[in-house]
Amino acid sequence: MIAALAAAATAAATAPNIAPNIAPNIAPLAGVQALAGTAGSHGALGAVGMIVLLTVVTLLPAIVLSCTCFVRFVVVLGFIRTGIGTPAAPPNQVLVGLALFMSIFVSAPVATQIYDRAGRAYLAGQIDEGQALDAATPPLRSFLLHHTTEADLALFYEVTSSPRPATIDEVPLKIAIPAFLLSELRLAFKIGLTILLPFLVIDLVAATILTALGMVMVPPQVVALPIKLLVFVMIDGWHLVVQSLLRGAMT
Q1: Which tens digit of pLDDT belongs to each residue from 75-112?
Q2: Residue 207 placed within a domain
Q3: How many domains does the chain have?
């Protein structure tokens, strides 16, 4: 009996020494719960902002293709390569990269306006996603309609049976963007045809000379290619083409 009482007394004496070891472990848990409660009130906005950011990043290639002059630039540069007759020089990566940075250069003023009107306020938390979209639409719409013909706009209004707008502010992006792309494709093919005609003349002259000399077994491209390259380099063709494209897109 005496031994049992002594054991109970020893256990009671050691119990207060265990509590200080548990208390430091409980305090951090309480801090984590408080932090979670504080973040919960602001987490919704951060989650929505992250979703919007990921959506914009996902749609960025489509935005670049449909809302800039990238289509015009890359199609015209492709026509130049076809007209010269060098399928692999310059490679596709070079043409796409040049067209991309030309598009960024042309669209930089519009992007700055969109950021000043909508991006800065949205990132500061002053407006929500809907208000940011409404604020960013007018500069983009103005840029698209500036490069769009009335015939292309009328086409999409006729197909959708929508009422004609009284002002450009009433044109929705769902009509402005495809009409802009159609106008860009038409203009790109017109420019490409103009570029191809001189190269076609050189090909015809080379073929006629070879036929007159009785060298029918020699492909005309073998003779025409060096001549076309010489003419293109002598007139500084790349500089002229890029200069014309930039001036046409920024007017």
Answers
A1: 999 999 988 888 788 888 999 999 999 998 998 888 88
A2: no
A3: 1
Question: Global pTM?
Answer: 0.71
- Domain membership of residue 43 (yes or no) is no
Alpha helices in the chain (DSSP H): 2-40, 43-67, 70-84, 92-114, 120-123, 129-146, 150-160, 173-212, 220-234, 237-250
Cα–Cα distance list, 202 to 76, 90, 226, 227 (Å): 19, 21, 10, 8
Q: Note whether 125 and 156 are within 8 A (CB).
A: no
Domain residues for the domain of 143 are 48-192
Q: Does residue 242 fall inside a structural domain?
A: no
161: left (phi over 0), alpha (psi -120 to 50) or beta: left
* Residue 238 falls inside a structural domain: no
Beta-carbon contacts of residue 207 (< 8 Å; ≥ 6 apart): 220, 224
CA distances (Å), origin 180, targets 140, 184, 185, 221, 246: 11, 6, 9, 37, 17
pLDDT tens readout for residues 191-234: 999 988 988 888 888 888 888 888 777 777 878 888 888 988 89
Long-range contacts of 227-231 (CB under 8 A, 24+ apart): 227/202, 228/83, 228/84, 228/85, 228/199, 228/202, 229/84, 229/86, 231/198, 231/202
Q: How far is CA 163 from CA 8, 170, 182, 247, in A?
A: 93, 10, 20, 34
CA distances 103 to 39, 71, 95, Å, are 41, 9, 12
* Cα radius of gyration (the chain): 34
> How far is the CA of 124 from the CAs of 83, 120, 203, 228, in angstroms?
51, 6, 60, 56
The three-class DSSP label of residue 227 is: helix
